[in-house]
Amino acid sequence: MRRALRDLRGAIALGLFGALTIGVAEGAAQDPDTLVVEPPDSLTPGVSVVALDSGMVVVDTLYTTHPDSVFRTLPALTAGAPSLREAGVTVWDQDAILRAPALTVLELLAWEGDLLPLRYGDYGAPEAIVGAGAAGGRIRLFVDGVETLPLYSAVPDLSQVALAAVSEVRVERSAGEVVVRLTSIEPDDPRPMSRVEASTGDLDTNFFRGTFLHPRALGGSIGLSLERADTRGRGGNDPGSRQGLWLRYALHRGDDMAVAVDYRKGTARSELDSIPTSIDRSSWTVRGRAALADGLVAELYTGSSSVAADDDGFTPIDLAQRQHGARLSFERELGAEPLRVLLHPVPRAIGDPEPEPAVRGDHGRIWARGEGRLFSGAELPSRTLGVSAGAEWSTVGGVAADLRSDAWADEVREESATVRGVRGWTRALYGLSLFGGWDSGLRGSRIQEPRMLVPEPDSLIDPDTIPAPDPVGVFHLSDRTSLRAGARFALGPVDVSGLWQRVEVDSILPVDLLGARAGQAVAGDEVTGFEVAGRVGLPMLLDGLALTGSLQQWETAGVYRPRRRYTGGLDFHDIFKAGNLELQASAQVQGRDPMLLPWVEGEGEDAALVRVPFQQSWDLWLQVRVLTVRIFIRAENVGLRAGNQDFPGRLLPQTRSIYGIRWTLWN
Question: Which residues fall within 8 angstroms of residue 370, CB to CB, at 6 or more apart?
């Protein structure tokens, strides 16, 4: 305990030292001859007084922007479909991320009722998420619009993807895929921002994340974020760590044009026999974005990504990939014009929120988004094209459609895969809205061959007798069609939705994470199921208290598709003292039935797919915010269930408590 407290104090002191150093450097950079004149107390900032010879005083309300109050962001691309359960979209903004118990991307996504986390161990071990029966080739990850391709697996390995400097996490379920989009932080205030996140806990678990963002530096804006998590793992015998780094420099030309250069690096370390000791993934991108017209934004980008691992005596991992792309988005508001509510007769002070627009009458919007990408290097596909479009109207509802096409090409074969989908939802009438969707198409992925032992130079084994593994592996296409229909009732403290869905898939592809045995394409099936999710407030007991939960159930179990997956519990959230005090507390459970994996054991009549057992974890969470300081404590698996595992024999920590702080500092 003493060591844990010492580590926490050291991490907090390091963050405060960095913040103070930045502040001192910024103050030292000011011109000593510059005199800052504060306006008189009787005048509001931005109001100038002019005295005339006649003795009359004229108040000029024309505001002159001070250079230090100016900040710019990249022209915004349309987000697409709204964040609605009916549209299949879930979004965590910056505030939601800071309120969540999650320290990593996977921990944030794991509480989605229709997503399954796959963890090969504790921090540092490979990990991924899959949908129910949607695995290899159907999980896609984008960071600032640039796809993070899985170079050595069939799904992105989230152990090398840090939550550092991420301002938004968006999950889209469309066109037979699960698409996760991460957006990096950008200035939303003219003041420099620093954020320190530090925690410590059982199993020698320590976590630190430091973020700095300056909206006016070196002629543009800069950002920096560092992240590290380490642990001794279950029983103190499964050590691992993960690190993340993010750097950005953006150069702005007015409000309509900008160029941003980003560098990200993620490192995962573990001490497992089947995994290299250290795996590094680094990437850089250069993006140019411009607003061509009202609502029309274009972007060109180029970038490179590489993965390298320590030599562990098996087939080496040293892969690289380049991609170049273009994106075009259009969004237009329809109907009634937004009417700005004038809250004050003078401009906003620094840091004050912009008044929300009021809209009278019917209104809506239309949007469209197109993108094309070219790939080269170790990773396929060789090109990707995609387009999505939609519309929504306040008195009717909305509709969204997606079309994506990938092509794989080499000297031996040429393949292509196309998926398409459409979703629609109605406006709520007396709290009730209807929704539905359909998608169909092919997705492709390679299935890796097992990594093989490389003999030593003096070994008795003849290297020529060892077959060279195919760097591309076995390529496979999977065809999937799904249909869903449901309803949502949201009125007062009650918000409940339910849907029926039918999925037909010809084959399911493995995730092929490092460490896991090489899987194989498994024959699919046709299955129906239902989902129920909701939140029911309990104001009669306590303001801010609610019951939350979700249930996904299928007729039969399948590969990466347990028959039942559920979450639920009690949640409390309320704000006091004019917004200066915020309290959160929750007791939540998540679990699933036994799950099949695409590995076959036995031969002949005894052959069967590998099954991992039932899993359940009760977690507790408490966080208190005072102004910009958040203090939290979380406890994992307080029921002490011993056999939780996502892969055979790779047991997860039986329990763990973590406590720490999240502190945002301005200027």
Answer: 327, 328, 329, 386, 387, 388
The answer, yes or no, to whether residue 10 has pLDDT greater than 80, is no
Using an 8 Å Cβ cutoff, are 110 and 117 in contact? yes
Question: pLDDT-based confidence at 313, cuts 50/70/90?
Answer: low
Among 509, 452, 450, residue whose Cα is nearest residue 475: 509
Q: How would residue 377 be classed by pLDDT, with cut points 50, 70 and 90?
A: low
Interval 152-176 mean pLDDT: 89
Neighbour count for residue 480 (Cβ, 10 Å)? 24
Q: What is the pTM of this model?
A: 0.84
371: tokens are: 């993108």
Residue 298 DSSP code = E
Alpha helix positions (H), 33-180: 94-99, 105-109
Is 647 exposed, middle or buried, given 0-12, 13-18 or 19+ CB atoms closer than 10 A?
Answer: buried
For 82, the 3-state DSSP assignment is coil
**DSSP bridge partners of 171:** 90, 180
Q: How many CB atoms lie within 10 A of CB 461?
A: 11
On the 0-12 / 13-18 / 19+ scale of CB atoms within 10 A, 3 is: exposed
Is 558:581 a contact under the CB 8 Å cutoff? no
Strands 48-51 and 57-60: antiparallel
Examine the pLDDT at 397 and tell me if it is beyond 50. yes
Distance CA 179, CA 232 (A): 32
**Sequence-ordered list of residues with C-beta below 8 angstroms from that of 166, at least 6 positions apart, any chain:** 97, 105, 182, 183, 184, 185
Reported as a pLDDT band with limits 50, 70 and 90, residue 298 is very high
Indicate the DSSP class of residue 134. Answer: B
Q: Virtual CA dihedral for 157, 162, 166, 169, nearest 10 degrees?
A: 30
pLDDT of 517 reads 63
- Higher-pLDDT residue of 451 and 238 is 238
Q: What is the pLDDT of residue 463?
A: 52
CA separation (Å) from 543 to 434, 493, 571, 592?
A: 29, 10, 11, 31
Q: Sort strands 220-231 and 240-252 into parallel, antiparallel or unpaired.
A: antiparallel
CB half-sphere exposure, 78, CA atoms < 13 A: 26
Element (H, E) at 549: strand 545-554
Phi and psi at 661, nearest 5°, equal: -140, 145
What's residue 36's pLDDT? Answer: 38
| pLDDT tens by residue, 473-503 | 567 888 999 999 999 999 999 999 999 999 9
Residue 424 and residue 555: Cα distance in Å, rounded?
Answer: 25
- Which two three-digit tokens encode residue 4? 């844990």
Sign (positive or negative) of CA dihedral 167, 628, 345, 48: negative
Q: Is the dihedral of CA 540, 546, 547, 550 positive or negative?
A: positive
d(CA 289, CA 326): 10
3-state secondary structure string, 392-457?
Answer: EECCCEEEEEEEEEEEEECCCCEEEEEEEEEEEEECCECCEEEEEEEEEEEEEEEECCCCCECCCC
Which tokens sit at 392? 């929504």
pLDDT bucket at 449, cuts 50 / 70 / 90 = low
